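Reviewers of the previous submission asked for a worked example of the structure-prediction workflow described in the proposal, so we include one complete record here. The input consisted solely of the amino acid sequence. No template or homolog information was supplied to the procedure at any stage.
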Amino acid sequence: MASYIARPVSRIPSTLLIQSSRTQLPRYTSPFLRRSLATPTTEKEQPRLRLGSLAPNFEAKTTQGDIDFHEWIGDKWAILFSHPADFTPVCTTELGAFAKLKPEFDKRGVKLIGLSANDLTSHAKWISDIDEISNTSLSFPIIADPDRHIAWTYDMVDAQDTTNIDQKGIAFTIRSVFVIDPAKKIRLTMMYPGTGDGKGVTTPVDWVPGGDVIVPPTVGTEDARKKFGDVRVVKPYLRFTNVGK
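From that input alone, the workflow returned the following structure tokens.
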């Protein structure tokens, strides 16, 4: 790894060397040593999350009430997983699968909690769809994070897809998973994009070669039928087709 040599003091912008008795200017900090999110009103430091790091605590509104994250974990293991937004097709199948497996996690002393970049009203409607589509009853909380404050704290943002933003220009979350132990330490992390393959489709949870695939939201239903043939519409945002192996 190449070493980083700090700039000599003479090259620091002069505006950062001026001292004022009335105004405290920001310290000069190497970009290699600092990660921050600039917003219209604040500049927020972003923690570095490593295996063994203390999972950042937060307070949040969820579909099961307000929580303090560390208090909610208690003396259990926890899995925190994020999704870009409600009513996204792949995420809908994933949450349905988690809902069905929750009793198995309960037996092992593991708590599940999801996060999506929408509000509680949207979450409630999405959960209703998930229950209908997967024939289940989703019973773990989903965090409402419309401003992406928690997503930013846990670095659930995508540096590759700069178009993955909402109308306010705020980055959506990517699919991230954190396994956290009873001491609130991070024991495993996993992040993966929502991209499809060369055939222009995406895959649902537990997909195997030859199984049905999902038509991406960017492709209209009629265009999908022209391209793939048969298209099964479960919801306007969840449509399946088959492209073989």
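Helices lie at 69-73, 89-107, 120-134, 149-153, 221-228. We consider this example representative of the routine output the project will generate in years two and three.
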